[in-house]
Amino acid sequence: MPTPHEDPYRLPSIVRPSAYRLRIEPDLDAAAFTGTVEIDIEVLEATEVIVMNAVDLVLEPPVVRGAAGESSGAVEIDESTERAILTFPAPLDLGSHVLSIGFKGVLNDDLRGFYRSTFTDVEGTAHTIATTQFEATDARRAFPCFDEPAFKATFDVTLVVDGALGAFSNSRIVHEAKLGDGRREVSFAPTMTMSTYLVAFIVGPFEATPPIVVDGVPVAVVFPPGKGHLADFALDVGAFSLHFFKEYFDIPYPGDKVDLVGIPDFAYGAMENLGCVTFREAELLIDPATGSQNQLARIAMVIAHELAHMWFGDLVTMEWWEGLWLNEAFATYMQYVCIDAYKPGWQMWVRFSAEREVGLMIDGLHSTRSIEFPVHAAADAIQMADPITYQKGSSVLKMLETYLGAETFRDGIRRYLRDHAYSNTATGDLWAALEAESNEPVGEIMHSWIYQGGHPIVTVRDGTLSQKPYVLGAPDGPSSIGGPWKVPVRSRPLGGGAADRQLLTEPAALVTPQPAVVNAGGTGFYRTSYEPAQLAAIVRRLDQLSEIERAVLLQDTWALVRAGDRSVTDMLALASGLGTQVEPSCWDAVDRMLEFLDRAVSSDERALLEDRTRALLGPIFATLGWEPAAGEDERAQVLRATLVRRLGTTGADPAIRAEAASRFDSGVVDGDLADAIVAVVNSMRRPGDFEEMRQRFQDAKDPQTEERYRQGLAGVADEALCLQLLATCLDDFRMQDGPIIIARLEANPIGGRAVWEQVAVRWDELIERIPPPMHIALGLGLTAQVTDSAFAARVAAFHRAHPLDAGQKRIDQALEYLIASARLAERERPTLASTLGG
Ligand code: BES
Ligand code: ZN
Question: How far is ligand 1, taken at its centre, from the CA of residue 269, in Å?
């Protein structure tokens, strides 16, 4: 690895910034901005060259003022490394200087840097806003800066805006003045010392809720005009989470206010700018009367996630982007801790088993990666935001938390934040803090999970446990799957009794009671493979497992089926044993198997699959019915939706279809069942429904309804309509949504292959039109496809010949998954008829 001095993507550390004074004047109509920045710098080694970051900006000659007077320099931008090289006539003295630069730029449409978004409000009036998205490395597109997370500084922002427009940034407004020309100058308080990627400024016709004051800090939700009736839920969660984290971390909130801002066009889900958190509208604004529990839980988690970052990420920040995983894995873990306290009835840790499952599935591919991964160029940093970072990362933290105990873990986090506040860290600093609290070899255990890809299957045989790597795909070149791991195993006797905590290290095997539940509590990041007799004993006494253990058993069994170690028959047997428990996570695992079979069966076997689906899911649905019963488990509604969808689609259940169609036709489709009803109606292929969904999409009054019908359109069971939608989807939908619809179309069981063919034909044009942060959507839909090996190989060859600048790793994973699914289908097909009939 080159040292920072030799690496063209890293800035030299001989000049350090400590404070920025920024003045920015955006012109929304002209889609342009001008600005000036003054930076207090410390020169640590005499130099006539200052290297900083800038891209897509026009810079004026820089001026440096120091004790010895003023000096003007020349500037040159190196677009390929996104750096500005400032050269002065004579070396600058050591010590403090003020660097001033004027600049101008374009408000782009790429959803990154300082960008523009237009939208039409409920009254039909068109509006324009300008907003920022700087993570990972796009602050340099808005102003020249030292754009690396370790160059922390304070930021004083002044925005000059049109009279009537709102202006928002990271801190409270301290000064406002009218300028003679109808514009307003708005100045914000200096921020805490923080990284450039956390700076935000937003200008536009926004409205806001009255703030709730939490421990002295005002929290408000900010939204485009006319959406105030959708903001209450976010405000409630925001206020709860802010207080929750202050208590959990035992440190006051480090900013002076919190705005949660809904942005009409946003590349990601949300972004943790200090005090000015930005969100995709659908991840913030919701009508709690018509939103589903899944949607509410998602919004609650996104808000909690971003607010956790105010401490973990904003107050204490990774030294360099290879540490991004820690930021994101930890915030993902904390979103569950917080929302579990917010709504105990949602059973958040049972829900978490779905995150673990996503991480495990990707991590069984040869194209997985280690959680911590070297990062050089800007494009490498953005690629870190993937399921290995979020899902695997948070799952191994949860495993560690279980191993150390929740309180010890929390105390270690408190120590880490206290020791490194306003500063930067590497992964080892967290392990050191946890070791100091726990006296356990945390670093040693975690090394085996963080610096190699893959995870183990823990095999139980004759009362002993051993490990081997789980491998989903067939080897097809180099593999990132490593091993062995230091596996924290908690096993307990099946009949009851305390779980014991052990560390499974190769080659030593561990002794365990028989029959045992090996991953007791379900927080281990590994699969368990029981020998046949033990598995049979467990299947007979499924009621002796906790809900999460049952879910994990089903998930692990399905993963072993995918890897070729178990058969679909084993999975079906397990599913039949589930009975009529209200356990969405368990039924989700069954649902995923049925979805796979739906895509894998030939027309000869379809009737068998329909019967089998109804036999499996019918009894539990019969106990639930369509209408919520008084006093039922809060999660019954979520399960009901899963069952309606699968029975109505894969099960082709006539009664379900009739009821779904009549509810759809009534026009009132909301709440938990709504998305399921749309999916069932799609499977019925009724003429006119596609046009009806398009109309309902256009009439939608909230982001969830809009999303429901946008997705409904992409789920149409007709190849020609899929292609028609593809042809216009970048025009019909917002740029934040169009690419996601392409991914959904690629996943469509009927039209997906034809859609992909078109995407391949139009590849260059699509890459040109779609903003870079969203390019990966062009390949992600493939993960859902189950096809034949020849098609999968052709798709893989195309994408390998057309790699993305950023995100190709995830495309490679999608391709390997696609190939593995095709092979699984080919393996199972010869026996499917007897499996399903039996
Ligand atoms: N900081 C991230 C978003 C991000 C990461 C942007 C890396 C650019 C590069 C933010 O905190 C985040 O994680 N957002 C998630 C939502 C979250 C609740 C999982 C997202 O946007 O998907
Ligand atoms: Zn995050």
Answer: 6
